[in-house]
């Protein structure tokens, strides 16, 4: 090391003259002693240094499928690594200041993200993921398709409703579709963990406003009141679709997804 830099695993500075390990693909730098804690797969450095502070989902997605932003993949991976025994996962809030700090840090890093293993409270990682999704200019369920999702979820017949939901999911922009699929598979794993005590109903209440949102960026108070119960209904029905449907979007090419 010529110029002292922080280790991307433990965060402490690697001093001048010390030996370090650096990835030739993503430029991640770490102490030799931290090698075993390094993520197993790296993320190639993007052409731009940092992500925008806000944007639509496609602004954060990789260039090759599945089009799931690295921030989403890394948060989900960390949650599944050490969070599936935590009661109230995604319902219990993380410290607001830490959530903001880590979100800023991840957005500044672009796709070369620092390891989240140094975040002691897993609820902070959950908060970063939710805050990132809430901060998008448009929710995963796009403004233009929002009415179609609500109509599909209102169909009383189970088979017809599932068909309609599959159809409208397929109309989403590729990055929104792939990320929604990735999150649905993750939330299903959370719902199946007895320690989390977060069933589909609880998760749909938490993620309804975040994933479904409204049909415009500035909804009226009446629209907010009418949409809220329907948002969770949409997520609950999306979670009722078979996992194989969602896997079809994210398991065709896996190079961008960290193994679970």
UniProtKB/TrEMBL annotation:
InterPro entries: C1-like_sf, PKC_DAG/PE, Rho_GTPase_activation_prot, RhoGAP_dom. GO terms for cellular component: centralspindlin complex; cleavage furrow; midbody; nucleus; spindle midzone. The keyword Metal-binding applies. It comes from the Eukaryota. CDD domains: C1_MgcRacGAP, RhoGAP_MgcRacGAP. Keywords: Metal-binding, Zinc. Residues 55-246 form the Rho-GAP domain. GO terms for molecular function: GTPase activator activity; metal ion binding. Residues 1-42 form the Phorbol-ester/DAG-type domain. GO terms for biological process: mitotic cytokinesis; mitotic spindle midzone assembly; Rho protein signal transduction. SMART domains: RhoGAP. The keyword Zinc applies. This is RGAP1 protein.
């Amino acid at each position: 090391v010529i110029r002292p830099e922080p280790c991307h695993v433990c965060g402490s500075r690697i001093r001048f003259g010390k030996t370090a390990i650096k990835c030739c693909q993503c430029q991640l730098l770490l102490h030799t002693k931290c090698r075993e804690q390094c993520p197993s797969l790296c993320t190639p450095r993007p052409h731009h240094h940092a992500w925008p502070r806000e944007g639509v989902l496609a602004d954060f997605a990789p260039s090759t499928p599945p089009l799931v932003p690295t921030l989403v993949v890394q948060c989900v991976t960390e949650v599944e690594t050490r969070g599936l025994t935590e009661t109230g996962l995604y319902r219990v809030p993380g410290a607001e200041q830490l959530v903001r700090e880590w979100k800023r840090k991840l957005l500044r890093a672009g796709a070369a993200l620092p390891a989240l293993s140094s975040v002691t409270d897993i609820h902070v990682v959950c908060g970063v993921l939710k805050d990132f999704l809430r901060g998008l200019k448009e929710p995963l369920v796009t403004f233009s398709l929002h009415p179609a999702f609500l109509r599909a979820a209102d169909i009383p017949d189970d088979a017809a409703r599932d068909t309609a939901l599959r159809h409208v999911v397929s109309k989403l922009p590729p990055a929104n579709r792939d990320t929604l699929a990735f999150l649905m598979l993750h939330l299903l794993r959370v719902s199946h963990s007895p320690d989390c005590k977060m069933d589909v109903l609880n998760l749909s209440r938490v993620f309804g406003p975040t994933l479904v949102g409204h049909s415009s960026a500035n909804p009226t108070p009446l629209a907010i009141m009418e949409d809220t119960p329907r948002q969770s209904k949409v997520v609950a029905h999306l979670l009722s679709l078979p996992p194989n449907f969602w896997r079809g979007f994210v398991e065709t090419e896996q190079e961008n997804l960290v193994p679970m």
